[in-house]
TrEMBL record:
Residues 669-766 form the HTH araC/xylS-type domain. The keyword Cell inner membrane does not apply. InterPro entries: CdaR_GGDEF (IPR041522), Homeodomain-like_sf (IPR009057), HTH_AraC (IPR018060), HTH_AraC-typ_CS (IPR018062). Keywords: DNA-binding, Membrane, Transcription, Transcription regulation, Transmembrane, Transmembrane helix. This is AraC family transcriptional regulator. The chain crosses the membrane at residues 21-44, 295-317. The keyword Transmembrane helix applies.
Length: 770
């Protein structure tokens, strides 16, 4: 600690540092808020106490409500499970007539098991009306002799309520005349003609014990009222304060309010149970709440003093930790340098940043050295026509990116080395890579010596292309210079490699979009060495009546057209047909050339259909077995495109869509079979999606589209149909059937009634009657 203070002291006062500024700011930030918070807390705490207590009471009431509601719900569920069990699901009337003793012993056994499993139950009994017996495991069998009591019990038996909770005493039932709650249910449950009534009694002492655990203030009261405002139980007497229930109904939107009872002001916090709509009410004397604020002033002063001391220490410690990354950065950048006493860490970092920027510039220069390779790849793609569909602005942007001047006179020549005619060559046939490397170096050195601009391109076919660009104003005198350059280059390469070298030279054009055409001219010039002889510079003449040398078949459109057919994209395929027709517009004077181009496009379409598995007879039909003959009969480009659409595009797209639909149906049938085999498990859409290799969202949409129902609706339908079959053909209980079709008992009853209109028990009874 002493060393830490010593280091901090040096950084604060020996020289100008960021650490000193941070400590000053941290102390200011630490002291001012603590003082402000201390004063504000004193003014604010008194008003907050009631709000905090109210929130605490809400949590307490929620705990009380949750405890009571869960107890009642558990007892009710246990009672339903007992009534849906084997004994009560059997024919009790027949059992009573055939085995009288077994009937009553079975009832006593079931009631004892229910009471032993629910310690909160004070009594459980079943009333058998035809003999007037009230059977209880505690009191045994008691006969109800009073006519009034029997009449009230018969009214309850004839009511529409299958099961319900009753609060308060039940005067017509012996032993049930005390406060508490009672569950009354028909026996058997959901039967058309019940044979008795089930009574489950819970004394109010259970609720009072739960409430007493949460009483925190002297004089605090708790009340529980049912939905009609009657008292269920309380910790403050046997009556509800007059007007309390009505006031709660008026102030339903308020979390708390003040109520005067027996000359005492209470803060009232009510909540309503979502289970049975009971009102849980907490009443805390206001004077008990105000007593908490008496010591706030002294506590506030003490807290301010302690927080100031802690704030100063934490500010120093925290600033030291925050400063540590800066300190580490400076130490990392120092490299043996000493910090200037007049310069803080920022100045030192700025200085080092300049040095790092210089290093970065060097690295950038190294990156720029790789630019020739990148420019070569771009130039190769440009020669091959990959950017013909770019707009003028886009193409100019690409030229700027790769440092290629625009608006220049362009020409292309292609260099090739033929195989050696004798053994005097410096290189062998398998040295093609070395030959290309030597070619590029010779061309580069010659361009530099002649002060000419161009890009040398490896064509990846053992040939090298040179794209030259020069000022258009010097085209006439430079044309001769280009020819001389090509001849000189040919001689240099031939002498060095000792191989026959042929160079094909194209014409000139100022438009960058004509570059693929110039490249084709140069390639055709090189190929013509077969006729005119190699080992020379062959210049494109530019003449001839046919002039097919300038025509370039739109291969990129054909490729895009084939791809659209493979995907079944009708709109894109028709757009490519329109683009193809547009590319033919420059050759309207050469109908044979247009016809030849459409022959080639037809071949591509037929090839695509064959690869997709579509028979050629399905394209043009038996009447048009010769599609090439059909093209010869058509006289306009518009009619050609229409023929292609009807005879090629439409059937291929329809076939692709049908194939996709068939695949989708196969996938859905796979899911349906999986559901029918595994419906009794906990199935999910994600499991089926993993089986099909699809996303759950896409499988859901595909299932709905194919089956006209959603995944969960189809699964529910299968489960309901299977449960109906089990209800008709077996004697299994409802809970066993629910388990066999993949449901819990409560959920099964709810889903079955929702889809069939009656509960499983009612359906089995109806089916038996029919």
């Amino acid at each position: 600690m002493r060393r830490w203070f010593k280091d901090s002291w040096k950084r604060l006062f020996q020289r100008k540092t960021i650490f000193r500024n941070m400590v000053t700011l941290s102390l200011f930030i630490a002291v001012i808020p603590v003082v402000a918070v201390g004063i504000g807390s004193y003014l604010f705490s008194a008003s907050v106490v009631q709000s905090e207590v109210n929130q605490s009471n809400v949590r307490i009431l929620n705990n009380v409500s949750s405890s009571i509601d869960s107890t009642l719900d558990r007892i009710q569920n246990n009672a339903i499970q007992m009534l849906l069990g084997t004994f009560f699901s059997s024919n009790l009337t027949e059992l009573k007539s055939t085995n009288y003793t077994g009937f009553y012993s079975g009832i006593s056994r079931e009631l004892s098991a229910l009471q032993n499993g629910n310690k909160e139950v004070s009594d459980v009994a079943i009333y058998v009306p035809d003999e007037g017996y009230l059977i209880s495991p505690i009191y045994g069998g008691r006969r109800i002799t009073e006519d009034k009591e029997r009449e009230e019990l018969l009214k309850e038996l004839a009511s529409d309520n299958q099961i319900r909770w009753v609060t308060g005493p039940i005067p017509y039932l012996p032993g049930y005349n005390l406060n508490g709650v009672t569950l009354i249910s028909k026996v058997p449950l959901l039967a058309k003609n019940p044979t008795g009534l089930l009574f489950i009694r819970i004394d109010e002492t259970l609720f009072q014990n739960i409430m007493s655990r949460f009483v925190s203030y002297s004089g605090e009261l708790m009340f529980i009222l049912n939905a009609t405002g009657n008292l269920v139980t309380s910790s403050g007497g046997n009556s509800v304060p007059e007007g309390l229930f009505e006031l709660i109904a008026q102030k339903r939107s308020e979390q708390r309010f003040t109520f005067t009872f027996q000359d005492t002001d209470y803060m009232v916090t009510p909540i309503t149970s979502s289970y049975n709509k009971w009102q849980y009410i907490n009443m805390v004397p206001v004077n008990e709440l105000n007593a908490k604020s008496k010591g706030i002033a002294m506590i506030t002063l003490t807290i301010i003093a302690v927080c100031l001391v802690l704030g100063i220490l934490i500010a120093l410690w925290g600033t030291r930790r925050v400063y540590r990354p800066i300190e580490n950065l400076v130490a990392h950048l120092k490299g043996g340098q000493v910090l200037d006493s007049e310069t803080d860490e920022v100045g030192f970092v700025r200085k080092r940043w300049g040095e790092l920027s210089s290093t970065a510039n060097q690295l950038q220069q190294q990156l720029s050295d790789q630019l020739p390779l990148v420019r070569e790849i771009f130039a190769l793609q440009l020669l091959q026509g990959r950017f013909l569909h770019y707009s003028g602005d886009q193409l100019e942007g690409m030229l700027r990116r790769y440092n290629v001047p625009a608006g220049q006179e362009n020409s292309v020549f292609v260099i090739t080395c033929d195989p050696p005619q004798d053994s005097g060559s410096r290189f062998q046939e398998n040295d093609r890579d070395l030959i290309v490397f030597a070619l590029k170096n010779i061309v580069g050195e010659l361009l530099q010596s002649q002060e000419m601009e161009g890009i040398i391109i490896n064509l990846l076919n053992d040939q090298v292309a040179v794209w030259l660009f020069r000022d258009p104003e010097q085209t006439d005198e430079r044309q001769t210079e280009v020819k001389l350059f090509a001849e000189r280059l040919r001689m240099l390469v031939s002498d060095y490699l000792r191989l026959p070298v042929t160079i094909g030279l194209s014409g000139q054009s100022e438009s960058i979009t004509d570059l693929p055409e110039l490249y084709e001219e140069a390639v055709l010039s090189v190929r013509s060495r077969i006729i005119v002889g190699g080992n020379q510079v062959i210049t494109h003449s530019g003449g001839g009546g046919a002039s097919e040398l300038h025509y370039r078949y739109p291969l990129e459109i054909e490729t895009h057209f084939e791809h659209s057919l493979q995907l079944g994209d009708q709109e894109e395929a028709e757009r490519m047909l329109a683009e193809f027709a547009k590319s033919m517009s420059d050759n309207v004077q050469k109908p044979e050339l247009i016809q030849m181009s459409y022959y080639r496009l037809l071949t591509a379409a037929i090839r695509t259909a064959y690869l997709l598995g579509l028979d050629s007879a399905q394209l043009s039909g038996e009447a048009e077995a010769d599609p090439y003959g059909q093209i010869r009969k058509i006289s306009t480009i518009r009619e050609l495109n229409e023929w292609f659409k009807v005879q090629m595009v439409d059937p291929i797209v329809a076939y692709v869509h049908g194939k996709q639909h068939q695949e989708h149906e196969q996938l859905i049938q796979k899911v349906v079979r999986y559901i029918e085999d595994n419906y009794h498990f906990d199935l999910s859409l994600d499991q089926c999606a993993q089986i099909c290799g699809l996303s759950s969202h896409y499988l859901s949409k595909l299932f709905k589209k194919t089956m006209d129902v959603s995944f969960i609706e189809y699964l529910t339908k299968i489960r309901i149909e299977r449960s109906i079959e089990l209800l008709r053909t077996t004697d299994l209980s409802v809970s066993d059937i629910a388990e066999r079709v993949g449901y819990q008992t409560k959920n099964f009853i709810r889903v079955f009634k929702k889809h069939i209109g009656v509960t499983p028990g009612q359906y089995r009874g109806t089916d038996s009657d029919s």
